Amino acid sequence: MNLRRRTTALLSVAGLTSGLLLTAPQPASAANLIKNPGFETAGAGDMPYCWEKSGWGDNDFTFTTTADAHTGSKAMKVELTRRVDGDRKALITESAACAPVVTPGKQYDLGLWYKTTTPDAAITLFRHDTTAGWQYWTDLKTLDLAGSWTEATVRTPEVPAGTDRISWGVSVYGTGSATTDDYTMDQVPDPVLPPECTGTAEQCANGKWDVLPTQNPVRSMHSVVLHNGKVLLIAGSGNDESMFEAGTFTSAVYDPANGSYKIIPTPKDMFCAGHVQLQDGRVLVMSGNKGYPTADGRVGYQGYKDSYIFDPATETYTKTNDMNDGHWYPSATILGNGDVISFGGLREDSTGSVAAELFSEAEQQWQPLWKVNQTWSYWGLYPSMILMQDGRLFYSGSHVFGNNIPGTGSAIYDYGANTITQVPGLQSKDERDQSASVLLPPAQDQKVLTLGGGNIDSNPEANRLTDIIDLKQPNPSYVAGPPIPQGTVDLGNGPVPQTGNQGKMYVSAVLLPDGKVLETGGALHNRANPVYETSVFDPATETFDPVAVDPEARGYHSSAFLLPDGRVMTTGDNPGNGSWNHDVSVYSPPYLFKGPRPQITSVIDTEWTYGDTQRITVDRPIAKAELIRPAAVTHSSDPNQRFVDLPLSVDGNNIDLNVTSNPNLAPPGWYMLFAVDANGVPSVAKWVHLQGPQALKATDASAHVHDFADAPAGKVAGPGKKRTSQKVSPTISGCDRHYGSINVCVPTDFPAEVKKTTAARCEWLKTNDYGRLKVNGKDDPLGLDRNRDGIACGKGDATRR
């Protein structure tokens, strides 16, 4: 598994002065924004005017101004004769005199002529941020092998805010050469058609929610969008001990095309398992619930070692080999080579697992512990581990239950080096329980948003915090983002406006095809007080826009996920009184009310490989296209959710899509392909299959990775002392099991506004519909059974002292 960290070095460039020019500089033409596009004007040293040497890594290289030109008398040849890592590239000089001026929000068509002797060459962009300076932007297009002069064109994404100039050129990152000439750059004309509202003014501004007529038949807390467009909903016992005791474990497959549900035989209690989609579209389900806590609270939840694969074609589960440890609430992240890595959760004895687990794509089984690098770290429950573009993992700080990990609460984990480097800046790290984290669109930007959260143990009011980190920075650190907008909260007597710093935990975050993020659902306290608020986060402006609100409560055990038609579906809610919300909501975002949708009328090939150029046809002009990985979400957590930009080469209604050569940006598997017009209106998705690491062309199967996150200054820790597990309190779920049935959650710590008296606590339980609560055993730690008749908050309890 190639997860090693790559260090980088930028080749220094000598400054250019006009006094050293051998001929007069060639200005850019009115249409072409490139100065000296054919290298005809000499510059200082051995590089043409307005061009500079750049690159990084361990390799041997040459830059040559050659007479083998497409037109004129000169071209640029960049050659690597030996490569361990890194690249070399001739770039437009990063200066005000040479780098083309661009306008934020606009797109630009780039073109050049080339010959190559290596399949490992790509058009690479850098941008000048008016605040942060020059920085890597993105790779746009991998160049095919070409023995004779060949034209390459590609359209940039929209220029990010704060960008005033760009620089670009061809990177060579495999042994061989690329010779280029006759560069062009033109601004794409603005679209001429304004958006056309096809709904009410409210719908066009804020979208709309519909509660579906058919309820979800299972108490599902796991939702996986399958590559056939259906949705796998996993319940297991559904947090219902009576179903566990009866051995009644359920799943269902929902078909959005006709609104039907099919009950699926489920072999084990997959309640609070982990899951991820494998390269071939099957679903790997790991661990689950071996046993509920004992009534006296002395034994907590237990995770089993079993693992299963769900096949969408047969709609059946098949057992794999066992994991090395039990993992109730594990993480699950697919890697660039198709392997799956997993951390955290509870073992069979209710202690915390410190074992890292690896499922091999090649062997189709979990690897023995001795084959997997171990730091013996306890990452908690559902730790959000997001794959970075160089193969490292970013632990965002989002997790489930109680406090965060020690230190800053966020870290970069390097599997190859077997090190953990703390990352600073996460606000209130111990109140990010059931926050949500997403890799913001596009994945090439390597920015992560973390929002909301609380703490099930201390039970404060959930917060409005958001944090954003740019993993392209040398020493990345979270910075505070805008607060989550406030909505209404039901404190037991109907919704009232949120006040002060009231926010939400159990929040869901969903990537949308227009490049924005929908956040919805949540609650103010541990399994109580639903919050009704939905908004859209725009990564370009880093702002929230409140939109229409899901009418259903969506707290603990709820899910939200993107459907292939561009709508968002939400399910579930399991408050502390043990009830379950079987209603299903579907959100139609505003983009579905902005006129006709573009259509992908054909996809030439649905089997894609890294570095491909793939052609589609559309019925009218589009502004962008992207791949969105289908959801596999539970408990606010889907670390594999990502939106991968596909730069375009446009020829009328024929669109060539340029697929990333980096499998860490788009891990292998099935993706939803969306085409989006200039008004942000998406097509219905087509399904395409991106193949695994065997498709990579570079001899060492490493991706083209640029300088970023190369100098994190946080505390670095290597493997700790080998140990069996981490001790974990049986009350980790924030529930006092001395009262009621196992699926009832009487909080170990009531909200701060509830006085620590029997009367106040009993009134809170009554307001939140807990009903009759039997006392389990002789202990009454919360003082709810003052008359000792075995019934908490029974007759006379609230009046006794």
UniProtKB/TrEMBL annotation:
Indicate yes or no for the key word Signal: yes
Galactose oxidase-like Early set domain location is 597-689
Enumerate the spans annotated as Glyoxal oxidase N-terminal domain: 250-577
Region Disordered: which residues?
Answer: 711-732
Under SUPFAM superfamilies, the record lists: E set domains, Galactose oxidase, central domain
Keywords in alphabetical order, please.
Signal
Reading the lineage from the top rank, the first entry is Bacteria
**So which residues are the signal peptide here?**
1-30
- What's the protein name? DUF1929 domain-containing protein
Organism in which the protein naturally occurs? Streptomyces dubilierae
